[in-house]
Amino acid sequence: MTEAKYTIILVRHGQSQWNRSDKFCGWKDVHLSTEGARQAEYSGRLIRESGIIPTVLHTSRLTRSCQTGNIILEQLNRQYIDIYRSWRLNERHYGALQGRFKSDVLKEVGKEKYMEWRRAYEGCPPLLEEADHDDRYKDVDQSELPRGESLKMVLERFLPYVNGVLIPLLEKDPSEIPLLSVHGSIVRALLKHWFSISDEDISGLNIPNAIPLVITLDKNFRPIGEYRYLDPQSAYVEANKVAHQGFGQT
Ligand SMILES: O=C(O)[C@H](O)COP(=O)(O)O
What we know:
This is Phosphoglycerate mutase. The protein is of the alpha/beta class. It has eight helices and six strands. The chain has one domain (6-243): Rossmann fold, CATH 3.40.50.1240. The chain has a six-stranded mixed sheet with strand order 3-2-4-1-5-6. The chain is globular.
């Protein structure tokens, strides 16, 4: 049997205020809703009960991912651990759809286009004229900042973080357990990459808010078995709600 060498915990942030109102969010810096903060607490409890205790936190530069990570660490009484933050862990940039109600976009462009923009691996939403030149991205080569992205583009900008930060940290100390408090598209991109999910199948994968999932890797950073949610039943129910966003039924 292949020996497990590394363990990684991934979690999508808790419900944001725009998740609650079914608006495209992307790089807009929307905070957690009250329910989202409660979900993040639950996430922390699940991790505590699993006994898989993170030793380092990675977040994006978006507040909802930072808030979720902080709440989880508070639940674990581990607010002292190191935190790494990067724009490369940001949600997929939703281009000109950001701030629009999902139901309005669905009505306007029809189901096929709507699903292509939301879920097709190479489906890219209409681009913004200008990238987000926010202070938090001041150290980033401005030509790298997206104006809208497909999941494929997310994977391309996220992999340098996996190979340049995440993996080297684990190689240095294999006992580290990183917690990635991130976004739906980052979780989808990472699962696609590590579990070789096809372009077609990835379009059917939806990620629930704030249900942690655990991945075990061998010494060559190849996954062992399947990834597993710490609360599979809730993950199933909540992922189904995500799938139906915009359709007026949850
Ligand atoms: O950015 C957003 O709007 C959400 O976090 C993800 O939205 P999606 O599930 O429609 O891709």
